[in-house]
Structures are given as C-alpha cells and as structure tokens.
UniProtKB/TrEMBL annotation:
This is Formate dehydrogenase. Pfam families: FdsD. It comes from the Bacteria. InterPro entries: Formate_DH_dsu. It comes from Amphritea opalescens.
Length: 73
C-alpha cells in the first residue's frame, strides 16, 4: 500500500472513532471501532493500520489508537 492508501486508512479509522464517541466509555467505544474494522476491513487494511500504529500512530485519534491496538488480539 502506498502513502495515499495509508492516509485513507488513517482518515477512515478516525472517522469511525469520531462517529462512536457517543457512549462515553473509552473502552466500549474502542471495542465498537475495532469490531467495525474486523467486520468490514480487508486483512491487508488491518495489517497496514496496525503497522502504522506500531511505527508512529501520531495521526490517529485516541479511540482509533485503542481500537487498532485491539486488532492485535
């Protein structure tokens, strides 16, 4: 995946996270985001975003970071 694709994944992860902040529980919100990614993202997308989190992750919102970390389990 190129840089443009990674930028798109970061944007999508942040959008999903922003759309799931209504619960008021960071853990539950992160689990919802991770669940969405698990269900709808291709394996290659999940691998790319996990690698990004491990290397930098600075552009991910806090809930998105937690969600991506949950994908490792």
């Amino acid at each position: 995946m190129g840089n443009h694709q990674l930028t798109s994944l970061i944007r999508m992860a942040n959008q999903i996270a922003a759309n799931n902040t209504h619960i008021g529980d960071d853990i539950a919100e992160a689990e919802m985001v991770a669940d969405h990614m698990t269900k709808f993202w291709a394996r290659s997308m999940k691998v790319q975003i996990r690698e990004y989190l491990e290397q930098d992750g600075s552009e991910l919102l806090p809930i998105a970071k937690q969600a991506v970390a949950l994908l490792k389990h």
